[in-house]
Amino acid sequence: MGKSRITNTPNVPTWRIVKDTAAMLRSPVHVFEQYRKEFGPIYTLRFGVRRTMVVSDPDMLRYVLKENNDNYTKSHIQVKRFVEFQGIGLTNSHGDYWLRQRKLLSMGFTRSRLSEILPIQLGVLEKFMADFHEETTHGPMDIHRQMVLFTLMSVGKSLFGEPMTKTELNQFADAIATIQAYLVKKVVQPYLFPYFFLTGQNRKHHKIREEGDQIIIDYIESRRKSGEKGADILQLILDTPYKDTGELMSDETVKVEILQLLVAGNETSTTAATWTLYQLARHPEHLEKIREEIESVCGDKPIDYGVLHSLNYLIRVLDESMRTYPPFWMIDREAIDDDRFGDINIPSGTTVIPYIYGAHHNEAYWPNPDEFNPDRFLDKHHPFSFIPFGGGPRVCIGQNMALMQILLVISTIVRDYDFELVDNKEVGIKSMMLLKPDGPMMMKVSKRVPRN
Ligand code: HEM
Fold it and tell me: Which of 249, 372, 422, 427 allows an S-S link to 442, with CB 3.0 to 4.6 Å?
C-alpha cells in the first residue's frame, strides 16, 4: 500500500464510523447518504486499515471508471472473496484474461443476437404471464418474488435455450440469495472468519454452490451429448474459438462464465423490474400515459424488439426508477499506482467506491432527487451522473438484454393488469450487495377490463 496520504478530501472521523457500525451493518446506504450530505460528493473513511474514498462526483467517476480505468482494478474483496464461490471469470478477472473473455462473450449480447432471441423471450413471457395470472387469483402476491422467477426464466432461457424447471429456478434463486448474503457477512465482519469455519457455515455454503454448479454442468453435458444446436448463449460459447489461438473454451471455464452471467444478470434485472412496479404503484398517474403510449405504438399487436425502443415514456419511467433505486448502489475499485484527480492525491492501495446511489441523488445534477419525475430524462444530463450499468470498458455487458427483459415484462403487466400496494404500504430498502426491498412487496393485482 502507498505511503503517501489522501489529500484535499473531507474525512469521516473514526469515532463516527465506530458509532455508526450497527447502522452500517443494517443498511450501509443510509449511512453513506448521511455522510454524503455532511461531507460532500467526495469523502474518505477508514474501514480497519483500508483507506476508502467514496465518490458521487460525476467528473471523478468518469476519471476512475473510464479515463484512467487501467489504474483502478476491482477491489481485493471482489477478487478474493468472490473467486472462492464463483471461480475466475469475466466479472472478477483483469488484464489480458478479462479482455479475451469480454471479446468472446460480447458476441452473445449484440443487438442482432438480441433480436434473434426475442422470439424466445416472448415465449418465456407468455409462460410467465400464465403463471402470474394464476397467482393473481390467490389474493395479494409478493411482486419481488414474481420478478425473481421471471428474470431467472428469462436469463436461463437466453443462456441455455431450455427453460429451467420450476424446481431448478427456485433452487437457483435461493442459492444465489443465500450465498450473496453470506459473502456480504464475510466482507462486513471479517473478524468472524474463524466462527464461520468452526460452525461449518463455510462448508454449508460451498455445498449450496456445488448443487447450483451441478445444474449448469448437467446442461453443458447434455448439450454436448445430444449434439443438438441451440440459438442460445451457451451454444455460442461452446462453438466460438478464441481469435488469438483458435481454441475453444474448456468446460470448466464455460461453467464459470455461465454461472457468473446467471448471477450478474438475475438479481439485478429482478431488482430493477421490482422497483419500477413499486414506483408505478406509488405514482399511478404514470400508468395511463404508459398505456396510451403502448396503444399508440402497438395497438393490440404483440410487442416486438423494434417497438420496445419506441416506448419512450416507459423507458423514462424505467430510467427514473433505476436512478431512484439503482440495483447496484455502489461498486468498488482499488488504485494500483499513486494517482491524482485535480488536487486530490490518491495513494496506491486506496479503495475507491463509485457510489452510484450518491451520484443518482447528487442535488447538483438532480434537483429534488427523491422526487419521482420521469420527465427529468427529457433534459440532457452528465453521462456519469446516471450510471446504473457502470461505465467505461467494464460497463455492464448485459445491459441491452436487461432492458429488453424489463421493458417486456413491465409493458405486459401494465397493459393487462391493475396493481396496487397492499394498504399503500411504503417498502424500505435493504442495501447489501444490491438495493433490494427489505421484505415482501405485497400487491393486489387484477386483470384489467378491456376498454371498448
Ligand atoms: C438492470 C439490470 C442490470 C444492472 C443494473 C447491471 C449493472 C451492472 C453494473 C453496475 C456493472 C459494472 C460492475 C463494475 O464495474 O464493477 C455490471 C457488470 C456486468 N454485468 Fe450487469 N447489470 C444488469 C444486468 C445484467 C445482465 C442481464 C447480464 C447478463 C446476462 C449482466 C452481466 C454483467 C457482466 C458479465 C458484468 C461484468 C462485465 C465486465 O466486468 O466486463 N448484467 N452490471
Answer: 422
Which triple of cell numbers denotes residue 184? 456480504
Closest-lying ligand 1 atom to the alpha carbon of residue 402? 27
Per the listing, cell 436512478 goes with: 323
Radius of gyration, alpha carbons of the chain: 22
pLDDT tens-digit series, residues 160-177: 776 667 777 777 777 777
- The reply to whether ligand 1 has any atom less than 6 angstroms from the CB of 50 is no
- The Cα–Cα gap between 16 and 6 comes to 19
- Does the beta carbon of 117 sit less than 6 angstroms from any atom of ligand 1? no
Q: How far is CA 136 from CA 48, 145, 447, in A?
A: 49, 13, 8
Q: Which residue positions in the chain have pLDDT lower than 70?
A: 1-3, 48, 77-84, 162-164, 187-190, 450-452
pLDDT in tens, 250-306: 988 998 998 888 888 888 999 999 999 999 999 999 999 999 999 999 887 877 777
- CATH top-level class of 14-447: mainly alpha
- pLDDT for 243 equals 86
DSSP 7: B
Number of residues that make up the chain: 452
Q: How far is the CA of 389 from the centre of ligand 1 (A)?
A: 6
Q: Assess whether the C-beta atom of 61 lies below 6 angstroms from ligand 1.
A: no
The verdict on the CB of residue 155 being under 6 Å from ligand 1 is: yes
User: What is the residue-wise DSSP string for 219-265?
Assistant: HHHHHHHH----SSHHHHHHHPPPTTT-PPPPHHHHHHHHHHHHHHH
